[in-house]
Structure prediction request, 710 residues.
Amino acid sequence: MFGDIESERQQVRHLLVVDDTEGRRPVLLEAATYSIGRDATNSIVLHSKLVSRQHAILLRVTAPESSAYLFRIIDGDLQGKRSTNGLIINGQRQYSHDLKHSDVIVFGGDVKARYYAVSNLSDEEFYRFSDTPDLSGILSKQSNPFQTLVPLGEQDYANFSEAALVRLASYPELTPNPILEIDLAGTVTYLNPAAVMEFPNIQKIGTDHPILAGLLGMVSGLRQAQEKFFAREVEIDDKIFEQSVHYIFESELIRSYVSDITERKRAEEQLRHQAQREAVINRIVQAMRGTLVASEVLQITADLLLQALGFDHCLIVQQDIPGTISAHQPQAQLPAPLNEINHQLLAYYRQQLAYGNQVFAVNTHPDLDLTLQSLMQQYQMTTLVITPMLYLGNYLGSISLYHSAPDTISDGSLFADRDTWSGDEFSLVKTIADQSAIAIHQAQLYQRVQELNADLEQQVQERTAQLQQKMRELEQLNDLKDDFLSTVSHELRTPMANMKMAIHMMKQFPLDERQERYIKILGNECARETELINDLLDLQRLEAGTNPIQLEQITPGLWLPTVLDPFHTRMQQRKQTLTIASLEGLPVFESNRYALERVLVELLNNACKYTPAQGEVSLRVETADRPIPRIQFLVSNPSEIPAAELPRIFDKFYRVPNADPWKQGGTGLGLALVKKMVEQLKGEISVSSQHGQTTFVVALPLALSPNRKI
Prediction:
């Protein structure tokens, strides 16, 4: 009936053969616990209305200090509630029974089952046996070598207490965690196999055993408070156990569930140390983010190191920076020459520190230099740790930690034993030293940037002053230029008027052909000079902004033909074509008639000037809604301006090189005047030139007059 764990699958097979309204079926018993009943949630479902929903429990029970096991059937559910119609085993009513080979079980007086423990069968023989209608011929009887795990004395199962049945049904014997019970007299009443193995001498020691110590006193407090549960941690040798204690009022038993939490506690302690380390590093990093003053960051670092590591003194020294950052535990006595001692030690270990090596010394170490050992003993220093602060291989300073007496270590420190350190502990201090080195480097960079900013600001101020002086000089020159142009232009208009009058008078007399040609040349040149003078005066007035513009309503369909009429004759003479898009549907808008006419005439003159014979000049007028309502005048002609020249065509006196093959001349003021006039009209002018076609676009804001369209 019992089998060894390593070979029980080959030696002993436990089988329950059930007969109910659904027929006959075998159930191979391999799990530790089975619930049996009518409800579909049971492990073994019995199909009969006479069977309770949870009728019985089948429990796998292992012998103490043995791997042998049997199956015990218990009437009722895990809470100790009995079934309605009970259990009949081998013809007798039973509440709890250790099953033996060939036992017959009747559930509720209706469903029959037979238990078998089969040994020495191969897998093939066993499965053939499971399917055999008649089992009696091949089953050999087995014996049960032990009756119960709980000392029952002379009690039989019929008189077995309900509390004991509940206990058996509630505690699987195979659980890996110790489970134990004692009564109120302190007697151990139950130990599961795990408890026997974990606490082998508990029966002999009794309530003096650490796992049982104090339970009776605690339970008396529970009884008064009408509570049933408490938990505690118990440390035994190098192990830590978590003990959940339950007081069972009904049976006056104290039940304990015990778990070994040693590894968990060690992991928690390690995590606590890691969290403290990370907290220290994070606070230093936050300090670095909050200030770029190295002394402030290093002071925070010194305070945190003492808080975290439990040393008595922390000294931080920066290379080539006078002074020392220091922090001390309140209870620690400060040796008067500590700074001097620290500088001696830094000089002593200078080469090691420069190579990035940490220094760890204990005054009792036999290999310690005698001079250093004497110095440490003289000032009662038990331990010192010196860590270099390096950044990109450059030595920036050091962090020195000193410990004087073991009893001054703070309880909250990470490392209570200052005589021995692990690699993780050295790594923590090294990490903090690296962070401090970064803070020093950042502070140095910040200082350099501040100095460069100061120099740059001074240079900018000086340069700005120079530029302002140059601007004033240029403004003065510009004013002089404007005054000169205005004066010269006015002065030139009078002689030009006299010249025009003289030419007109000369034309009143008979002239030969040569004289007429000369007079014509004089007239053309006089007209050009007059145009130049007028352009200069107009441009000067526009730049000065002294003449406010007057707006009036303009109807495009009536106004444009009068503007364009002179160009028809001119273009016929030059064998050119003027194309005008339909002007119907255009709205009435407000602008300055003279300025807008001057703009269009200048653009059309330019188009005619740079259009070859048989070429076509076009004018299109349209409206647009985006980005604002506006009216647009587009003048196009078949010529192309190089892309590099486009940004300069609106500059005064600028003419595109090699763009006038007909040598018609010009002053370079026309487009500059157009741009100024368009700006005065609150509009914009743009130009595009590609694929042999140039288009000027004049866009003016559109203010519609109500109900006025043509």
Summary: The longest helix spans residues 423-506. The chain has a mean pLDDT of 78. The first strand starts at residue 12 and ends at 20. Residues 457 and 463 are 10 Å apart (CA to CA).
